[in-house]
Write a structure and sequence with these properties.
Radius of gyration of chain A: 24 Å
Helix content of chain A: 25-40%
Strand content of chain A: 15-25%
Strand order of the largest sheet of chain A: 15-12-14-13-17-18-16
Shape of chain A: globular
Number of helices of chain A: 19
Structural class of chain A: alpha+beta
Number of domains of chain A: 4
CATH architecture of the largest domain in chain A: 2-Layer Sandwich
Distance between the termini of chain A: 58 Å
Largest sheet of chain A: 7 strands, antiparallel
Oligomer: homodimer
């Protein structure tokens, strides 16, 4: 009705697109081996009719005033729209959808046309003591979109989907002014027409928005070159009660604690972001993603670090561990003819060279720039890869990765409909701690699988290099056959992994944000004094608690966290956050 | 007595070091021409006996408790130490010193040995409702160290000079844990012994500390490679009332609004920084600073931008305008023999090529890395320089710049003692706005010189390239012969320049911070809504207003700003902060 398209109410992406195991003969045996699941049975997506959606809580006066602002077409309060705007796409959200477990559903959805309408909506809602939750692509996986369960006030979801334009490009400065509701493809399409790219490609790219990226401190796959969203965003505008926060585009400034950085990661709690000035780059002459194999994860990690400290410049440096490498092969189409021959020859050669193919790790490294520059960088990388025992596989494998890079969530939904739960936990830590963190996390997950008495699978990739460290991205899965215990089993594993991050010098999340999911670990992540500073800012800036309350920091009421859905809260704040790892 | 050395109470650097015009025959004529000043008369530095230092305000109980913490040697309340810890090294500070114009002088100086002592001092002072002002190298030039004039409570200066150690180096991650009181040379000496560098070289390097750099959002000369201090600092510890804020070293994180970024630029208002984890880099194989000449500033700026958007990697890209180029030559030693011949031949060649030597601009570009990498980058730069009409002068001129890069403040003091005022204003703006900002700032300054009815001189250099823009750094001077009007004349010029930044899409300061000097422009710089967010944070985190009150944001009392020393406050907040420059 609004003209704004949304993802499936029950899963990732739009209706009609999903993971298809046909022509991928290795997938079913892989899943069977990994988590004991038989995927031959057809999946059963949930039915909307089965949901019991509570009636909206809104008085006529506020509804009428909101209608006056946006018009009838752009105020929606039917059940489907309200449910779509209540949950994100985290596995907890999707498990709950499948159990009909809705709690506080947003009461009304409005689609403002421009910043002036956002201002009117914000002022009306705060004056009426309603709650405002901004909505971009709805891809959040940390519970940042859902109202708090005990919320009694009217909850208004502000969908920015109509505000999706690139407003201007400053060609001379490499800056573009873009509306917050623009989704990844809308941004790149509009920029691309004029020869520019923002270079920000998170996994959620197709279904996430500029405003969402800023609000959650997002990072894209090519951050080695383009930086985190915190680097990319140079100015922004956000609507607060009775005023617009207006930060002009500046390359750098020393005017006090950075207000730009306060809004980045604020998850709707400081106002509604309406537009931003972002760094944009000329589409490069050459862009190549090259595939590499390493004999094991350790040698691969060593190579990644050496590449990062060398004179080489890359756009992405990524390596999967052996489990994720196996999963990659398992989701590929069966290879035929010459391709099959080449791969078999290659594997034969590696075996003869003494490689244990069960331990082999697949790596992708990306290059951009002038042709000569790309060649120079590839030469440096090749030398380092070879030194660490790896081999260059080439751009064929690289382009397969490049074309499939946004598709992983579809596999998650496919499994969910067939009786398995899969989720992700990602973090960063200094280089010196990477292997330790990897080992302890795998161990913590396996221990948690044992505790839960279930078969389970965990895999990992390394990505996002920084001067002092990098990101480890874990994906885990376990069977979900017994509805009585499966949520708790999942929760046990998820908690064990996140707690291991806290206990071993890593952060609660590198690029997924906090929401209500990660909030219980904040005092350990940034120390109790750190949460006090965040609280001073968030509460001081929003005394009525109208802007997406309960996210990032809870109000301290036990049980309010989405996180503690049906399991006990983690054991409070330990003294460990005071420690710093030693060299 | 404390063993911690300080700068001159009346000027830059330590006693015995200053600018010496001998052997620089072009300097006196240059100053005469620029601002009509005859420098042949000897300078008259002020005498400490002439100062009337008010008695300290502290009750015996607090003094005794502080003594118990640090011991007799490390609590100082003699007049000299109190004055040294009250003022920074801004030209306003030094003009006031020369007039005996002290206002609120700090009451006592303590030198804690470690973080535990800082915690005790902080707790004692907040419990006694005293004011705490942290002190590093004392080089601040924006009035961040001085108590507010109306402060009635006891003011304690916490000098971190004893906390100057590199505590550990994480060799594998390129991270070092360093105490906040360490000055630039102390840091580089300790790191250099183990083959590392932090690469952070602000103009104040010799007399500024890590804690000061963090508290003011500092940037070093080689930021093109090493980044701003906000990029370099990955974790930190800061003492607050009853607690330590402890942020572990993380390459990147998405845990809500960045607390790390809240402390960076907080100027003592969120607590006392005791140590930080910073990025450190291996001392490069090759480091070269190359000099270039351009026919004029415009062609030079175009070249700087093209270098930055090319595949070349530099550590510093800098170009002086014609006035600053003339000043550079005027402060050089007389050249003899072969050097003189080479330069004369070069100038002759340029004249024949049609250059107007009065418009010629001197540029320095720095390179680091492996020998081959440096050569590749120099080749790309040479091609771009040539395309824009410039020529390579070589590493001889470059190394002169490199050896003199920290010396400019001595010339300022030399002039001040001989009847001239000189000060700086620096900012950033997007590339598309650089030339407009340069032109309008020069015009605003010249107009202000006319308004004040005085001769004046302004020069500028470009430095610190970012993706979307860069820094312009202006230095201006005017004669200071008439004590009755000279301060007001200076103030007229300084205000005109800063206001021009605000009116033309630039920030109040790129790397000098806010203090009390720039505070009046904050609402224009970050919009009134931005100052509300800063206020929510600063006031919420320090309800008793004990931590360096009045800095960054004033309490709104007219006349409290150091800025409005003896001139009216600027005309309030204009609506212009709401505008963003269009492409």
């Amino acid at each position: 009705m609004s003209g704004v398209k949304h993802q499936k109410w029950w899963g990732w992406g739009v209706e009609g697109i999903g993971f298809n195991p046909e022509g991928k003969p290795n997938f079913a045996p892989f899943v069977k081996k990994a988590i004991g699941l038989d995927i031959s049975k057809p999946g059963t997506p949930p039915k909307f009719e089965d949901l019991d959606v509570p009636a909206p809580v809104i008085d006529d006066a506020l509804r009428t005033r909101l209608l006056d602002v946006v018009g009838e077409r752009y105020l929606l309060d039917d059940d489907l729209d309200r449910v779509v705007h209540t949950l994100g796409k985290g596995v907890r959200d999707l498990m709950r959808i499948r159990r009909g477990d809705l709690r506080r559903v947003v009461d009304v959805v409005v689609y403002p046309a421009d910043e002036a309408q956002v201002q009117k909506i914000v002022d009306l809602c705060v004056d009426a003591d309603a709650v405002l939750i901004p909505f971009g692509g709805g891809s959040n996986i940390v519970g940042a979109l859902e109202p708090m369960p005990a919320e009694r006030r009217t909850v208004v979801s502000v969908d920015l989907g109509r505000m999706s334009k690139v407003l201007e490009i400053d060609d001379e400065s490499g800056l573009a002014r873009i509306q917050a509701g623009a989704l990844g493809p809308q941004i790149e399409e509009q920029l691309g027409r004029r020869g520019w790219t923002m270079g920000h490609f998170p996994d959620s790219f197709n279904h996430s928005s500029l405003g969402g990226w800023i609000a959650t401190r997002s990072t894209g796959m090519q951050s080695d070159k383009y930086g985190d969203i915190a680097d990319i965003v140079r100015g922004l505008r956000a609507v607060r009660h009775g005023e617009v926060l207006a930060l002009r585009p500046l390359p750098s400034t020393s005017s006090g604690p950075s207000v730009r950085e306060m809004v980045i990661g604020s998850e709707g709690r400081l106002g509604i972001i309406t537009e931003a000035w972002v760094n944009v780059h000329r589409v490069p002459e050459v862009r190549e993603i090259v595939g590499y194999f390493f004999p094991d994860f350790t040698s691969g990690l060593d190579a990644m670090q050496e590449i990062h400290t060398s004179d080489a410049h890359t756009i992405v440096t990524r390596i999967s561990d052996a489990n994720e490498t196996e999963m990659s092969f398992a989701t590929q189409r069966a290879q035929k003819g010459r391709k099959k021959l080449v791969m078999n020859t290659l594997f034969g050669y590696l075996k003869r060279r003494g490689w244990d193919l069960e331990k082999m790790c697949l790596s992708y490294i990306g290059f951009e720039g002038g042709r000569r520059y790309v060649k120079q960088n590839q030469a440096i990388v090749k030398e380092i890869v070879t030194k660490h025992g790896g081999i260059v596989v080439g751009t064929g494998v690289g382009s397969v990765y490049d074309s499939k890079k946004f598709d992983t969530p579809y596999i998650r939904d496919f499994l969910l409909d067939r009786g398995a739960t899969a989720d992700v936990s990602e973090t960063t830590t200094p280089w010196s701690n990477l292997k330790h963190l990897y080992d302890t996390t795998i161990e913590a997950a396996n221990h948690a699988f044992d505790t839960a008495g279930t078969k389970g699978f965990i895999m990992c990739h390394f990505a996002h290099s920084y001067h002092s460290g990098a990101c480890l991205y874990f994906t885990f899965a376990l069977p979900d056959n017994d509805k009585a215990t499966s949520y708790q089993n999942y929760d046990t594993v998820k908690r064990a992994i996140q707690q291991n991050f806290m206990d071993n010098g890593a952060t609660v999340s590198h690029h997924h944000g906090v929401g209500s999911e990660h909030a219980p670990w904040m005092a350990e992540d940034i120390s109790p004094a750190g949460t006090k500073l965040q609280r001073a800012l968030l509460e001081g800036a929003d005394p009525g608690n109208n802007f997406n309350p309960g996210k990032i920091l809870h109000d301290g009421e036990p049980g309010i966290a989405m996180h503690s859905y049906d399991a006990p809260a983690p054991g409070g704040v330990s003294g460990r956050a005071e420690q710093v790892p030693s060299a």
